[in-house]
Amino acid sequence: MMSTPFELAFKHMPTPAFIVESSSGKLTSYNRNFEVLFENFNAKPAATWVSLCSDATSADDWHKLNIKIQNGSIERCESLIQVGDKLINMQLELQHLGDAVLACVYNTDHMDLSAAENTLLKFALTESSAGLWIWETHSDLISCSKSIAILLGCPQGKTPRSTPEWHERVHPDDVQRLASIVDEHVANKKKYYEAEYRILKDDQEYLWVKERGRTYTRNTDGSVKKMIGFVEDISHQKALEEHLRNQATFDELTGLLTRGAALTHFKKQLGLAKRQYTPLTMAKIHLDANSRLTTLSMEARNIAIQTSARYIYKKIREADVLARVDADKLLLLLPNTSVKDAKNLLNHIINPTEDEKTSLIEGNSDPMDFCIGIATFPEDGETIDELALSANQAVEDGQAKCKQIVVN
């Protein structure tokens, strides 16, 4: 039995509603607005779920549905409801109440985007770049809001109307991943998914978007019948992520690897040297061993460091790894290179051609300022940190002895 406050609230609900007994599937009560639906067709509500719902053929169908309602796998479904001699497609919101189920009824034959948008305000994104879509899985009909047309730069009548049309706009590198995410959602009858991908606008530019989809209504067997979701412009976020990723990998002034990024490469090369018993040499390059750059302005000093780094990068081999590890210091890893070969390469760096020297001086750089310390694996260290420490010690010895290349 319903309590008096609940009964009064139920009877005066503006939404048509009815209550089904969990154990039997009998309709134990319905409110006035539900009754009016039937009166409009000179009919009365059915006595059981099986006779009310055309999708149900036996009491077992109700019991299966009731279990899904109890465990929360179905909160909303669509079904054809028998109203007199007519079948009306209705949306049912179902709530488990212990021994009974409360069903609130909405006629969905004429559901439009504005109604759906109001219903799902708690799910809506407030950004102007967010666009609403509704997808009917059986017919593969997609309805898009005006904001999606604005997002894509196309007339509203030209927005995608089906999955193939939507996928035509998705970047070829992203379309399979998006399809897999959505297919898995539908196949596993999930509630929610997210996906990020690039979509083509009418101006032929790709836009990064985040898509958030949610099951809106289900069939009585729990399968997804209708989905609703949003696409949101995240281009600025992606640009920021790319900027931060580059900052973490490459030094902003010189374009060389940062210390952290270089460490990964160094460890890989050290591992190869250990496994293959090949030589490995590390060189620490001090760009301002004579402290000349400290007398320059910040702008001139930056130009000098940039000029020196680019010059050295052009002189090394493809397999070598060069990183900026301090304001005026570089670290160079020379895989499969003996000390003798390393000294030959580094001598070419401190002895530029006339043309190279002219370019260096124009860029505030002077190779006479360079001091290079060399350490070798495994004689001077068996880890990257040990080799770096040894190379740094060689640089300090070189500065003290006014030598440009020093082997530890």
Biggest sheet, spatial arrangement of strands: 2-1-5-4-3
Quaternary status: single chain
Outline the low-pLDDT stretches.
110-129
Any idea what the shape is? elongated
End-to-end Cα distance, whole Å, is: 92 Å
Radius of gyration: 36 Å
Structural class: alpha+beta
Total helices: the number is 14
User: What's the count of strands?
Assistant: 15
* Rounded mean pLDDT score: 87
Taken as a percent bin, the fraction of beta residues is: 25-35%
Q: N-to-C SSE series?
A: HEEHHHEEEHEEHHHEEEHHEHEEHHEHE
How much helical structure, as a percent, in the residues? 25-40%
- Main sheet specs: 5 strands, antiparallel
How would you sum up this structure, described in words?
It is a single chain. The chain has about 400 residues and is an alpha+beta fold. It has helices at about 5-10, 30-40, 50, 60-70, 115-120, 145-150, 165-170, 175-185, 235-250, 260-275, 300-315, 340-350, 355-360, 385-400; strands spanning about 15-20, 25-30, 75-85, 85-95, 100-105, 130-135, 140-145, 190-200, 205-220, 225-235, 280-285, 320-325, 330-335, 370-375, 405. A hairpin with a 2-residue loop joins strand 3 (about 75-85) and strand 4 (about 85-95). The protein starts with a helix and ends with a strand. The model is unreliable at about 110-130 (pLDDT under 50).
Summarize the structure.
The chain is α+β, with helices and mostly antiparallel strands and 408 residues long. The protein is built from 14 helices and 15 strands. 38% of the residues lie in helices and 26% in strands.
